[in-house]
Amino acid sequence: MSGLSDDDLRRIARLSRLALGDDQVGPCRERLSAVLGYVERLHGLDLSGVEPLVHVGDQTNRLAADEAGQTLGNDVLMRMAPERLEPFVKVPKVIDEGAGA
Amino acid sequence: MGVVEVREAVLSRRVTAREVAKAALGRLAAHADRLGLLTQPLTDRALEQAAEVDSRLASQSGDEARSRLPLAGVPIVVKDNLCTSFGRTTCASRMLEGYESPYSATAVARLLERGAVVLGKANLDEFAMGSSGEHSALGPTRNPWDPSRVPGGSSSGSAAAVAARCAAAALGSDTGGSIRQPAGHCGVVGLKPTYGRVSRYGLVAFASSLDQVGPLARSVEDAAAILDAISGVDPHDATSADRPHTDTLASIGTPVEGLTLGVPRQARGPGNHPQTARVFEQAVETFRGLGARVVDVDLPTIEHAIAAYYIVATAEASSNLARFDGVRYGRRAALGPDDGLDDLYSRSRSEGFGPEVRRRIMLGTHVLSSGYYQAYYATALKARRLVQRDFDRCFAAGCHAVLMPSSPGPAFRLGEKTSDPLAMYLEDVYTVGVNLAGLPGVSVPAGFARVDGVELPVGVQLIARAFDEGTLLRAARMFELANPAGRRAPP
Question: Are B265 and B234 found together in one domain?
Fold first, then answer.
């Protein structure tokens, strides 16, 4: 399970939204495979009937009082955006013009 | 001067907060670049904060000031993954190079309210991912005991600044050992509070179910003073525990009656450096000399804790760091006319994140992806349950605390482990289990290893029941008082 192929690496990079140059695939695969090989040891544990522990905290919802409070204004948040076309945050085109509606 | 000393001197008006800040800033300026302590000094801002403390003091009676300004004039540094509404918050990453947070983390805000003065933002491994302080886009932090060695990480600048006596205390964050391990390597006290004890609001998230903010300081007493200031429920963090502020400082000098310490057989692992092993045995003897009952305990799953940790932590990181996409804040790559939204995401992220952060995002993405989730992530969560049960058994058997080394060996040389991520991860073998189980742990200076003619600090770690920082710190204080040699400053 721990041996990753170059294609696995490209799939993981795509899912991670990280660009991975061809020269980076090999070294990256080796390092990730080494870590995955190490974590295989978990399969040596007897985990039958063990409940997963996702979070140690009190997992009940806490309701806040229904009161208006101060929040950060739009202007403050918009100032952080690297590119904007007020009142919007600007992103590259996502719909291909030729593709129709 | 340490936290309590500064507080007393300022409250009794023997010295002003501004005088303390000036002296601390002078010392910081002399060492910050040499040791890579900071991502950003906040000199002017610190002097303003100090002047404000002085003016608040002038308008208050002695008793009023003592209760409202318990950290009057205390000069601190803050790990740069904690948001501050002043200066920049960079996580030592190109991704957040010029980022200015519109608000301060709750832990920072509480320190400021109580009179502390922030001298600067401390260097760290990028996004708190690392165990050496070398994974910073601004360059590494160096160990004040031997600048050719690492200070540990990821709260590298926080630990080194306190050790170099450039700040009375520091805030760090601990996801798998990032406060305790550098505290051990630098010869200072480092406390990871119980999960939920301190608000995570304004801490840039790495692994949300493991992250916790805590203090690094010169003494257990000083760490207690900082904990008492930052702890307590926070409406901004739904995972902060609904418990009042701790009041650990008031009883810190009271020894734990009938102290029972569990020493796991796994704490004496073959991977320990011989000098770490020697200091650890001396610490056990010191506790015996204090009248503690030392019992053998077993943490059978602890040797699987690293594996479970690096699955859980990277899975959570891959999700948490998805927010850095070049759209709303942070780095945005320059695009060509034909580039689309996916190019914006992947190029901004590849330019912004350093190699270790990219590696962890990819690992976390993989263990959560279709076909691998059960084999990795679900398995790790079950192992996490077993780690928690191991500790529960020790406490159920009557242990007040469990004693372990803070790390398997003393500080290593810069570059020694950077090419082998797995070797770096194994640095955390004694610390990650505490995060998986959500317990409080404190690293206390215990002695010195002599390596290549240099003395390097060695820490030991005490671990207690959830929300029992009171007992934890009292036991740590007993040890500290019995072992004053551990509190030396670097040459």
Answer: yes
Spatial separation of the C-alpha atoms in residues A96 and B394, rounded to whole Å: 62
Same domain, B325 and B469: no
Rounded Cα distance, B217 and B319, in Å: 32
Between positions 297 and 336 of B, the ones with CB within 8 A of A are 301, 304, 306-308, 310-311, 318, 322, 325-332, 335
**Alpha-carbon distance B54 to nearest alpha carbon in chain A (angstroms):** 29
Domain with residue B143: its CATH number is 3.90.1300.10
How far is CA B394 from its chain centroid? 25
- Chain A contact for B384 (CB, 8 A cutoff): yes
For B218, the token pair is 């010169």
Q: Is the peptide bond before A87 cis (omega within 30 degrees of 0)?
A: yes
pLDDT score of A60 more than 80? no
Q: From CA B366, how far away is CA B369, in angstroms rounded? A: 5
Indicate if B390 and B314 belong to the same structural domain: no
**C-alpha separations of B217 from A24, B74, B220, B417, B487 in Å:** 41, 11, 7, 27, 11
What are B115-169's pLDDT values in tens digits? 999 999 999 999 999 999 999 999 999 999 999 999 999 999 999 999 999 999 9
B454 CB-near residues (< 8 Å, 6+ apart) = B145, B146, B149
Q: What is the pLDDT of residues B58-114, one digit of tens each?
A: 999 889 999 999 999 999 999 999 999 999 999 999 999 999 999 999 999 999 999
Residues B124/B153, Cβ–Cβ less than 8 Å: yes
Identify how many contiguous H helices and E strands chain A contains and give both numbers: 3, 2
User: Does B437 have pLDDT greater than 70?
Assistant: yes
Over range B433-457, report the average pLDDT: 97
B70 in contact with chain A, both atoms CB, cutoff 8 A: no
User: Which of B201, B365, B373, B463 best tests the A interface by mutation, with the highest count of A CBs <10 A?
Assistant: B365
Residues of B in Cβ contact (< 8 Å) with A92 = 335, 339-341, 343-344
Are B19 and B54 within 8 A, CB to CB? no
Report how far residue B380's alpha carbon sits from residue B378's, in angstroms, rounded to the nearest whole number.
5
Residue B348 has φ and ψ, to the nearest 5°, of -60, -40
> Is there a contact between A18 and B348 (Cβ–Cβ < 8 Å)?
no
- Inter-residue contact B184 to B408 (CB < 8 Å): no
Q: How many CA atoms lie within 13 A of B380 on its CB side?
A: 28
Same domain for B225 and B172?
Answer: yes
Number of domains in chain B: 2
Task: Choose among B444, B426, B433, B431: nearest CA to B391.
Answer: B433
Burial B437-460, CB ≥16 within 10 A → b, else e: bbbbbbbbbbbbbebeebbbbbbb
Domains of chain A by residue range: 6-43
Crossing angle (nearest 10°) for helices B17-35 and B156-163: 120
Which of B318, B339, B374 marks a domain boundary?
B374
Class of domain A6-43: mainly alpha
